[in-house]
Amino acid sequence: MSYAYLFKYIIIGDTGVGKSCLLLQFTDKRFQPVHDLTIGVEFGARMITIDGKQIKLQIWDTAGQESFRSITRSYYRGAAGALLVYDITRRDTFTHLTTWLEDARQHSNSNMVIMLIGNKTDLESRRDVKKEEGEAFAREHGLIFMETSAKTAANVEEAFINTAKEIYEKIQEGVFDINNEANGIKIGPQHSPSSPHAPSGSLGQQAGGGCC
Amino acid sequence: MDLPRKPFWKKPTKSPGSIKPVYGAQHPPMSDPSSAVISSSSSPKKDKTRMRRNSFSEFANKTEDAWDAGDDDICVLSDPDIYQPDIYSLTLQPDITAPDIYRVLTITDSLTYSFDDYSLDTQSDITEDLSITSLTLQPDITPDITSANLFKGLPRVPHGSDRDLKQPSNLLGCRPSSPTLLGGPGIGVRQTPAPFRHIPAYKRLLDKDLDREVAKLEKFKSLLEAPSAARAFSGTWYLSSCINPVYKFPTLMLQGYLPANVDRRKGTLERKRAEYFGFIQQYYDTRHSDIHQDTYRQIHIDIPRMNPLISLFQQEVVQEIFERILYIWAIRHPASGYVQGINDLVTPFFVVFLSEVVDENVNVENFDVTQLPEETVRNIEGDSYWCTSKLLDGIQDNYTFAQPGIQLKVNALSKLVKRINAPLHKHLDKNSVEYLQFAFRWMNNLLMREIPLRCTIRLWDTYQSEPEGFAMFHLYVCAALLLEFSRDIQKEKDFQGIMLLLQNLPTAHWGNEEVSQLLAQAYQLKYMFADAPNHLHPKAGKK
């Protein structure tokens, strides 16, 4: 399918905060109450529309365990957006945000848009981190913030789409170098008539090398 | 004692490329012409000529007329190089029962087990068993059972329709009542479960004349009913089961845990189990201490998330068993500690051991473990711990800092595929698919997430019989898996399509046949490349 832009995302955060469930809800519109552990990275994709333009999101869902950090780090590079997720019912996942953020900033390109997500709002009775705390953290570090529930799907679409909107705006502002795929952004094939042989939907770096 | 020490297929063969067949690896013929080497003749006569001066050839000579000519199950058995080691594994199981028979007859390349690691005890024991076997394996024994007894409750299949059947498992995932459980790649992989087909438990007999197989089973039944024969047979044939819950002993043995000597077994098991529960007594309370609480917390979070759709793993008692096993292992192996995925590696052992004590008509995945006597559950826990521990000993660099073992193997996989299937490699490369993106999990979880559990159990059965099976042979299996889907992968024309396919391989329907083909391909690759790393360099090859 043709698209105007391709954005690459990465989802990060502690073990068990609901990263995979968020992705599953976003890509498949379903919730699996218990989700087996993510090993290394897993891939998901979906098309969205912003400003009347088709945008393809390719998302890397990463394992939360520290042991996999050396593997998952390499996925920061080449991501235009990151969803940094914590669990509002587990304070430790919130206190670890600083480490995650440092890691992300260190290994990603400086323009990467980071969305902070407090997940599991369906478990309000067990809430351990106030919404205001999340907001304050986001403000302090220049992140966008949302609370979501992968279970009820509340704000899940919005979280992914708002991140895309922010990236899109940055493109309009000329902040992103869209010709450099290392930024996690790629122009769709129909925008590159100069390469008629490029197969539709080809995302390969080599294949896309002739674009623009 | 004059035992064959080398794995059989490493031996130089007279005709280059004629890999001695691994049982189950020979048919149906591989579609890939290059794998035709596997189908080297294995007629009884040829095998007979290969026999060498050992006591087994006498045994085989005496018994070969017990079987129909052209029966390649037995042909493989009659290869002394392959079969002899297993003769030494005879165990005392006088209480073997009829249902065990058709289980044990699902012969697989377990028969290739090498017993290098196990001290064999007295020659007299062995000879005695051999003579019993040879005496009882006579064709004139009157079968006294019917196929109905052997396959009780299983539907019969008309000849010629076998091909639609998939390998059974009365163990897991293959029951009509549980279409999706363990029926696909790891749960957690985003995929819709494949439509389920009921698979009768004797699919192993496919592509053959069923009646002949039934007659064979009848012979076995009568043999096994003789008290002395039971002794001679049980251990040997236990080894051969792969999809059925009868391999506690071989598993234990192959994991280097159980001595081959019957007399020492009970004591060893008791001692090791006691040792494990000693660890628990000594260390389990440390789980809330400062140094270990992170480890424990991680395990504690992970265990309830394992196999979320299978009720067995949602039982508190089972989850506690897994927590203890993993915690004790983790703190005793600080170089790696607990890494997600290791939890998956306990599962096959646990399920196999559990299956052994559960009535075969009961679906293990729904079994309520609290129904078992406490002692039995403790034994399963102890045995699972030691077997997992033994497995992990061989692959610890997969889980140490930065997981160098996995990085190396994924690199090797890439090189291997580049060499053996250049178009596929190019296709992946062109679409910016990196091997690490999909093969990391293949290595980290030893394919537990990529194929159904019954197939993993089957696969590991072979790994256990291979030197460095879980470390090195696994690499060739991964390459074979990739080749298996080469065409599908190349049909996908973009990164997204390839990645989604690779992390959701359509293997939900897989059974023994598919795993056997995979193993055949893997053996072939190993045969070509394992001892000749230069073959991986294009210059050394034809291309």
TrEMBL record, chain A:
It holds the Pfam family Ras. It comes from the Eukaryota. SMART domains: RAB, RAN, RAS, RHO. Residues 184-212 are annotated as: Disordered. SUPFAM superfamilies: P-loop containing nucleoside triphosphate hydrolases (SSF52540). CDD domains: Rab2. Residues 188-202 have a biased composition (Low complexity). Belongs to the small GTPase superfamily. Rab family. This is Ras-related protein Rab-2A.
Automatic annotation (TrEMBL), chain B:
Keywords: GTPase activation. Residues 32-43 have a biased composition (Low complexity). SMART domains: TBC (SM00164). It comes from the Eukaryota. Residues 267-467 form the Rab-GAP TBC domain. Residues 1-53 are annotated as: Disordered. InterPro entries: Rab-GAP-TBC_dom, Rab-GAP_TBC_sf. This is TBC1 domain family member 22B-like.
